[in-house]
Amino acid sequence: ISARLTIDPRFAVGPINRRLFGSFVEHLGRCVYDGIYEPGHPTADAEGFRQDVIDLVSGLGVSAIRYPGGNFVSGFRWEDSVGPKEERPRRLDLAWHSTETNEVGLHEFASWLDKVGSELMLAVNLGTRGTLEALDLLEYSNIRGGTALSDRRVANGRAEPFDVRMWCLGNEMDGPWQLGHRSADDYGKIASQTAKALRQVDPDLELVVCGSSSAHMPTFGEWERVVLTHTYDDVDYISCHAYYEERGGDLGSFLASAVDMDHFIETVVATADHVGAVKGSTKKIDISFDEWNVWYIDRYHGVDKITGVDNWPVAPRLLEDAYSVADAVVFGNLMISLLKHADRVTSASLAQLVNVIAPIMTEPGGPAWKQTTYFPFATTSRLAVGHALEVRLESPTYTTEVYGEVPVLDAVATHDPETGAVALFLVNRDQNESHEVTVDISAMSGLVVTEAVSLWDDDRSAANTLHDTERVGLKPNDSATVEGGRLTVTLPPVSWTAVSLS
Ligand code: AHR
């Protein structure tokens, strides 16, 4: 079977919400300290933030950033992170067995977000705290003044409210590792109560209830059903989290990870719609895919994990995966999966942003650099504008150990109705062969290729590291040509490609 697809603006899936290109900063390892914040660094600004990191984050094109966790948030007291720095307590961070100094808190992070041009998305602690503390944080953050907590924010140097729109009702509450882990029934009740309380302050907040930590949790599916049965009328989103890694040298299955992500999204949508049907509701719940990435999690459990009652380091090196070319191809494919479901996935957060399973790495006192995954994210964020389009892809298939028979290729297109610009994102999962793809673009006249780039390398394990920060980058794909209403483009083995036309 030859590889063919069609780009036609009439095949729109839905508008692409910019929040699809969000990320995640957790107080974990060297994400904040020695990552975005390093007062002694030669590029540090007056607030101690690394300018080289600010520049890389700005170039990545990140919309909303979820903060401050993650597992961290389930033991977090937000009050520790505001007020004079010298009075802020040092605390045990049980999630990552570290010491949290609270040097960077809500005010500092919001100021950093202004520098990188991103929006704040806050998670509240529903693990070891409850509705009242969530209300307190909302009052502190969003009320202009005239109350104890809003006046405290003003006294702490921020006259204007933070005006946080997106709020996560806890984190991964289905996970036995989570501080305050609950049953779906117990969590559904506290999430509903907290959501109602937050809406009494501001009915227009956008609220995210916790879905499953992965589609492979034993409670997956039932968790979503029970939690949404409690919270359907109270929330706007249910979260999905998914991490993928190559296991046991099975590259074929790893390259097909997006097949799993597609299935995950479609299953959660079906479950949410089922709950809506039972309730006789016309409302739709969207997905906030607020943690996704490639993550070699087995390495964390095997090597990195910190233990010892007298051992609570500050900003240890944790989850510092170096991403290969193959990892970046899978990563680019995960972005294709998100775009293919843009009608229901209207928010997503790449987990995470700096040093911790991140597209950006730093060395204390030294350079900051782009990992391989930086390239598909930055390019997709820049080019995927307007509506996501279904492309009716015809592709050869191959057989994987984990997912059975899967397409060799995957693709999604976007179309901007305002400018007429079109973008096409593709992956080739074939480990040996290039594939030429023929694209019918006859529905639009006069399009020419304005940019065509691929991420691939003869060495699929190549990565950017401290010792060679620019080993891997995007390569121009000169094969992309338009003739007689057809675009053809050749995809190298194990590659991710973006083509833009206007
Ligand atoms: O992103 C790393 C961790 O993965 C987060 O803290 C947690 O929510 C998830 O399990």
UniProtKB/TrEMBL annotation:
EC assignment: 3.2.1.55
Alphabetized UniProt keyword annotations: Carbohydrate metabolism, Glycosidase, Hydrolase
Main EC class the enzyme belongs to: hydrolase
Catalytic activity: Hydrolysis of terminal non-reducing alpha-L-arabinofuranoside residues in alpha-L-arabinosides
Keyword Hydrolase in record: yes
Stored Pfam families: Alpha-L-AF_C, ASD1_dom
Keyword field contains Lipid metabolism: no
Chain segments annotated as transmembrane: none
Chain ranges of the Alpha-L-arabinofuranosidase C-terminal domain: 290-495
Family under the similarity heading: Belongs to the glycosyl hydrolase 51 family.
Description of how the protein assembles with itself and partners: Homohexamer; trimer of dimers.
Protein name as it appears in the record: non-reducing end alpha-L-arabinofuranosidase
